[in-house]
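Reviewer 2 asked us to include a model.

Predict the structure of this chain.
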Amino acid sequence: MSAPIHDVDAYAAYINRELSWLSFARRVLELVEDTSLPLLERVKFAGIMGMIYDEFVMKRMGGLHQKIKKKPHHIGYDGHTPGEELALCWQELQVQAGILDDLIEDVLRPALAAEAIHIYDYQSLAKTDKKYLQNYFKKSVLPILTPLAVDAAHPFPFISNLSFNLAITIINPEGRTRFVRLKVPSNRSRWVALPKEKGFVPLEQVIAHNLHFLFPKASSFDTNFFRVTRAAKDNPWDRARLDDHSADELPPGSIISMVTAELNYRKFAGIVRLEVSDSIPKELCDWLVDQLRIDHAQVMPIRGLLGCSDLLGLKIAGKEHLRDQPHHPVPHPRLRKIGPEDHHAFFEEIQKQDILVHLPYHDFDTSILSLLQHAAADPQVLAIKLTIYRTSNESPIIRALMDAARRGKQVAVLVEITARFDEAPNIEWGKQLEQAGAHVVYGVEHLKTHVKLAMVVREEPNGIRRYVHVGTGNYHTGTARLYEDLGVISCNDELGEDVAKLFNELTGAIPPQDYNLLLVAPHNMRERFTELIRQEVLHHQAGKPAGIKAKINQLQDRKIIRELYLASQAGVEISLNVRGLCSLRAGVEGLSENIRVYSILGRFLEHSRIYRFENGGEPILLIGSADWMKRNLDRRMESVMPVLDPEIKRELEHILSVYESDNTNSWEMQPDSTYTRKKVGKGSEPVTAQQVFV
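Predicted model (structure tokens):
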């Protein structure tokens, strides 16, 4: 039982952001363990865990290393210094990495073998298979290998981020010992398939056991594996400030060169983690630590596979019984019968009533993509405006915009080139759009643009009409099949006017506008959310219906959490569906007895944001791009819209109630901040929210 807390400003009232993020990782790790899931789905989640840990080390732990350098004595809202945070994160990360390592080696690999899906160790292979791999090595791998010696004439080489490396100790016939680093080529599959679908062998083992072809005169080899993870924390705007440049001093368009420089800097950023085979000799490990100029505390020994994110690239034919049933999004019922050439019918349908698109259950291609394709081809459309945060390779979104520009329509696109890990492709998309004749801007000074907005301007008999899409997810055909998201397509005049104002602010760098409907960060969103929370307190005190519900990705903003605590202490019931990190403590006596926090995980990544305020019996519902994070409210351009259409309100109410009733894929936060997975009670039917929507 957690001790009572009454002070909403106490350190104990807040959960450390990074530790909460690792708590989310724990919940995903439970999906790897879950024997009710098909085996290959568990393998998929193991690969996802590898990606999660890599990203956490790069972004979050890399950021903590920077904090230690800049503000070592700074105390966060949870009472920890950066050094304390780093130590706690590292401790938890090692525990989780060990669990994942054991699950892969002791559970998943034997389970795969039982299904005739073998990931072999090279030593266990038959002679014929070894001969096959020797030939593969000589023909397809050996020609592209580059051994790098370390000696008086050769300094220790640069080790790139997340690269897979062999640390080779070679003994020549004279008895001399030398060290060679060999990088595993990334342009070859990690999983070398044996003939007749016998199974796979990791590429690094194929290389390690055929080194005599690379070093034919060597007497013996001692081979160990290692992998480094570098920081990816810095924001290019932050770097500009560090370089003593004000916004006025920066030349026009310098954001492109700033981001390009940042990408180059990231390649050489400091090392945060060194993963090594747990069998590595201590002397060699100590030598690597010295050469890489890191601390022993940054070393993570791994018993099994290094770089387990590569499990996502394991290509297994057939075995459909070991996978989830294929998911086929359905066309939105109101758009199902509209053909690709029937532009008038498409826009006429929007005129009848707003449309709520729920991905991945509704088909992205026949709804949101179709909106842009119709707009590109419709002679009555004059202009299209769109924000791009992330988009897919060979994007049909980009093709539609380029087609519209070539047809003479006014096309304006904000391409956010500081979207982490998508910087380079976004710069390239921007160039292609400009070449096609579109107007392209690359973000807003000192703010990351995270809004999900589209606008189509159409000339009609009664005058010009704006059609808008306000969403929670990216304009990305790939993630639209994997992420759960919401979006409203509308031609409401007042909403269209607000969206037009926001686009003008984004592209024209004009001062913040007065928005009638939209909540826009960093302008009015924080203030408006604060007002809405406080209004629920007043409604409750007046004896009127009161309550707050939210479905969000993350909750970290201290000021918002404080308001939620005060509302709970006043008696307001609060239900928060928070997928990822949550710095709020739920169910704590004296602090948050009236707050429930739960997390839904499953096949699809929950990504939509819904906010509901009871408002005295006349509920206010909002959707949009922003979480209750400080970065979303203060350091990004974000948009959240109030839902006006009564039918869509009912749809959102249903969605929220389905999530609240989930008793299979729902984890409930306990007063001690741990999470417990819900179980189906006796006499109850299992409810899986994602399955309900399917």
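Residues 239-250 have pLDDT under 50 and may be disordered. The domain at 343-517 is CATH 3.30.870.10 (Endonuclease; Chain A). We have added this to the supplementary material.
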